What does this fold into?
Amino acid sequence: MKYIIIVVGLLYGFWIGVQNDMTKITGEETVQQVLDELGDTPSPNLPNRLLPGASVEIGESLVKFGKSQNLSGGNTMRQSRHFVCTSCHNVERESAYLNIEDPEERLAFTHEKGLPFVQGSPLFGIVNRTKFYNDDYEKKYGDLVDKARNNIREAIQLCAVECSQGRALKDWEIESVLMYLWTIGLTMNDLQWTEQELDLVDNALSDGKDRADAIAVIKSKYLDHAPATFGTPPSSYKEGMPDIKGDPANGKIIYEDGCLHCHAKNEYSHYRLDNESLTFKQLANRMKYYDERSMYHVSRYGTKPKFGKRAYMPQYTEEKMSDQQLEDLRAYVLEQADK
Amino acid sequence: MTKQIFVTFLLLAIFQYLNAQEFQKDAFNDRRVINSQSVEMLKKGKMDFRTYHRFGDLLGTSGGWQSFYGLENAADIGIGFDYGLNDHINFGIMRAKGAGELRQLVNGYFKARLMRQQVQGNNPLSITFVANSTISTMPKASTPNVLSSFPAFSNRLAYHLQIMFARRFNQRISLQASLNYTYRDLVYNYDQNDIPSIGLAGRIQLTKATALIFDGVFPVLVADRELPLQYQFPLGVGFEFETGGGHVFQINLTNARGLTETDYIPYTYSNWQDGEFRLGFTIGRQFTVHR
It folds into this structure.
């Protein structure tokens, strides 16, 4: 009798194992799980979960509040006195399509979701990327980007020290941040699929054929890096960009979701903005200056941290705010100033 | 009575939190109008480094060309720090030269916001309370019967309590009224220790960065004071501008010589009509200590 029980138990275990094999995509799987199953190169972004003190909760607290608890249970020193990660990065999805960078679509999407229109790439899905501080960021950070470009840990550290003007993160803090970022990594449901593409992935998972194609099609669904082009303001700040007519309605959204995110409550900047006519008159009057007083200048060049005033404004790349959007913002400011 | 006042303030503060709606923009750009405190608060984690300067009389017998319109004299000079424990509680300390009989003043204050004006809501006013204490650190005088003889240590102390009510009427006009109580531990026989007063202040915004400001303090119920000099109400007007980088510059004209409430409220004798007003400036620079 006991042999029968053992055999039934083994058969049941085998059946359970078969059931758990990933042979058909449900959509709930993470993209990384599917890539791993297809035999793709393991991601270097995976966290070291064995490091003492590292946890998802600590990572989330560091990202959202800039501090957490150390191994002895006490509060860590705040990572930065000026910013937290979410000052410039959303942790939510910012765009319906993950394989293109379209600032117009991004603005509409973030506005609909009630998210700020910020300069940084979203942290949502960032662990699925392989390259960081791309393209023109070399102009801003020089050699510092060399180590960070292909290494997410170095990228996080560069962001901590340079972008947020704070202290370097400890190893367990970086692993904690990674643990949290993996909780907002991409799932298969986050990507747009055709039936043929899903069949390709399903078949590759079930019979092992065309795995390279399946991996390629998955990776085509999202960008492995965020392109970064540092735009330039118009040659005449007074005249604006030739041949581009601004839309004040769109500019209102940019002003409220972008400018006011940092400037409304003195949270990140001493320079206060609001919706009063005196404010718009000042913005309009200052637009012509070829320095930090002009919205053109700060949008495209940002400001720099200074001794005694480390908080600064990062610029919007062309991928994050288009020239058209910049003119939309101008149109709204001028319209309000004229009232 | 004290307990009832405390409970009232506590209930007002709790009411403010429970009734959280969109708050009105600040009525004043700075936490001091000219000499008076304003209802405004320093934000959490911010430290403000403050420098105050009041020159000598611009005109009058000691002003004019001989003192280069007061610029060669200093009626009072102060330097200090304010700190925002949170958005509703501030502390501050300032060392001032002092312009009255007591000099070398160290002034500490505690400030708490009880109510904040809302854009649309039940709070039409901002209400802030401030408690101030000043100690004179000047050497004890060898001459008896002067204030600085300090028969007891407590004679070095003076206190000031103030509750302010302010409203920002629109983007250009803000007004503030305050009830003040100043107490000096040691005074002459012809004077009185406690001086209740009413304060008025206002701000007229000219552009986003510039504004005209004024303030005045008017002692009440002080008929028993028989001062050797004619007391004058401390009145000030000023022009302030904000650079946008955390700097607020203020240039003012005031007949008050002292900087702290315990100094200028009891001891202002300079008369505007005699040209005994002075140029002064205040510079504030905010730093982020923590978020």
About this structure: Chain B touches chain A at residues 25, 43, 45, 171-172, 205, 207-209, 244-246, 286-291 (CB under 8 Å). The longest helix of chain B spans residues 2-18.
